[in-house]
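F.,

This is the one I mentioned.
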């Protein structure tokens, strides 16, 4: 999947970085399958509720169908219309996550956060069947998919609240450019972990 370009909006007093929705197509397909299965179950419950009578079983089936439809629609549409952005100003870095039904805004003061790190995909132990029998059943691929599904973000910093992950789906080739833009705006307020020195030096050598 080719990710959408990261967009930068330079204002007089802030820098807004729009990451958009960078969810992997396989993850979106997984949510679509979940939506279809859950909707199918809801339809069965709904059919069980007809004809509508003053019968507790029929009423419970109708309520169950409505709840399943709502849950399926909420999870699917929330992922389909998910977007993430980062806003920097002289005092804070603000992480903004939006879905079709909600908006989450978290603001952190520069003086109150630690070094910015790039983690990428979390390290994991290879599946025991990786490389054996050519992995006919796709065990390794399934584990990678589950890992991507639950990964909170590829960048993080420590805060008084604990470790804060963000920039979901932003991998090294985009993260390097993004951090350079953040550094241009924030200057010494943005402190980078040691891994960035090697990553940025590698990018500069590739550009020459």
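My design for it:
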């Amino acid at each position: 999947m080719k990710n959408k370009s990261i967009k930068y909006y330079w204002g007089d007093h802030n820098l807004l970085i729009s990451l958009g929705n960078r969810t992997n197509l396989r993850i979106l397909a997984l949510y679509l399958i979940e939506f279809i299965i859950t909707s199918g179950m809801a339809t069965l419950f709904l059919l069980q509720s007809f004809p509508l009578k003053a019968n507790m079983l029929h009423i419970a089936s109708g309520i169950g169908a409505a709840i399943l439809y709502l849950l399926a629609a909420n999870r699917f549409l929330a992922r389909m219309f998910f977007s993430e952005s980062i806003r920097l100003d002289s005092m804070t870095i603000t992480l903004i996550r939006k879905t079709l039904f909600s908006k989450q805004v978290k603001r952190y003061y520069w003086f109150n956060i630690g070094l910015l790190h790039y983690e990428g995909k979390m390290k994991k132990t290879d599946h025991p069947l990786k490389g054996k029998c050519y992995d006919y059943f796709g065990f390794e691929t399934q584990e990678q998919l589950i890992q991507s599904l639950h990964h909170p973000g590829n960048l993080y910093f420590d805060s008084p609240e604990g470790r804060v992950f963000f920039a979901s789906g932003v991998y090294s080739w985009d993260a390097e450019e993004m951090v350079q833009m953040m550094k241009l705006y924030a200057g010494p307020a943005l402190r980078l972990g040691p891994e960035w020195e090697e990553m940025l030096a590698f990018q500069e050598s590739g550009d020459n």
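Residues 56-80 form the longest helix (25 residues).

Talk soon.
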